[in-house]
Amino acid sequence: MHRYQVALLLAAGGLVSSAGMAIAPRVLNAQQPVAHHPVPATKNGNVVVMLCDGKTSLEIKGLKPGHTMTHDQATAVARQLMQKWQRAHPGELWQMAQEEGTQMRPTTTEQGNPSPNLPSAPNQPPSGEAPNPVPHPANPVQEQVQGVPVHRQAQPQQQGDTYASFNQRDFRVWQAETQKFVEYGKRVFHSDKLLGGTIGVSCDMCHPDAANTHPETYPKYQVQLQRVALLRDMIEWCIENPVKGATMSPNDPRLRALEAYILAQRKGVPLNYGKH
Predict the structure, then answer these.
(1) In whole angstroms, what is the distance from residue 151 CA to residue 137 CA?
(2) Chain-centre distance of CA 112, in angstroms?
(3) Cis bond leading into 149, ω under 30°?
(4) N or C: which end of the chain has fewer CB within 10 A?
(5) Once rounded to an integer, what is the mean pLDDT over residues 169-188?
(6) Taking a C-beta distance cutoff of 8 angstroms, is the pair 239, 233 a contact?
(7) 130: helix, coil or strand?
(8) Averaged over 151-179, what is the pLDDT?
(9) Whole-angstrom Cα distance, residue 237 to residue 213?
(10) Do residues 58 and 40 make contact, with C-beta atoms less than 8 angstroms apart?
(11) What distances in angstroms separate CA 262 from CA 54, 142, 172, 195, one per listed residue?
(12) Using CA atoms in the order 80, 84, 90, 93, what is the torsion angle rounded to 10 degrees?
């Protein structure tokens, strides 16, 4: 059977020198391997895809190893997998959209087609009106720029006080750069090519608008990985398994942007690590 899995050789403990002295492993450079779940054997020589639960799988009729589906075909396969999962879990509900009350604004994909949306920016005052000052125990006057508090000290600042030198323009630049990075993460999330997938599947096909990813619950123990996982660990697992792509470097802009996009979609939700 053709598999898209990479065998990992695990070294137990440290090395032993010729003198018999134990050499401690280089912990700082060590990386925990990503768990791999072998998919069921193919019956007709087609590609078998596994859902991100590590259990639900489907043999894709007519998709041979090395071939890629169209976007519509991949979407249909994702729906079939979700229907199969729901039949096996009649008492469970897979969230296919963001919770009610989340404000959204229309955006477009790389191709210009409508796509799931990002949360809208915080409410801004009408044009020409300044934000209302809000009392602050440490700084009497507080303004907001794009929803970000900006403190104006009443007293002169000491020389060398870096934080006191931040101004409204700084906050606008930082927010613009952050939003640009989140938008890049959105494009990666919706593109099998940017994800490095090999069968046409992208993250949004099972998680529209990053729904049901719950980044606020990480870190938590994940059965698929058989260890406590960070959000990016689960992103990596999904890229390797349902998407059938390659592991990304921890500093890969795509991985970092994916994490930023998923977190941005849950803005305002309280952190609750360990929750399932």
Answers:
(1) 11
(2) 22
(3) no
(4) C
(5) 96
(6) no
(7) coil
(8) 70
(9) 13
(10) no
(11) 21, 30, 22, 14
(12) -50
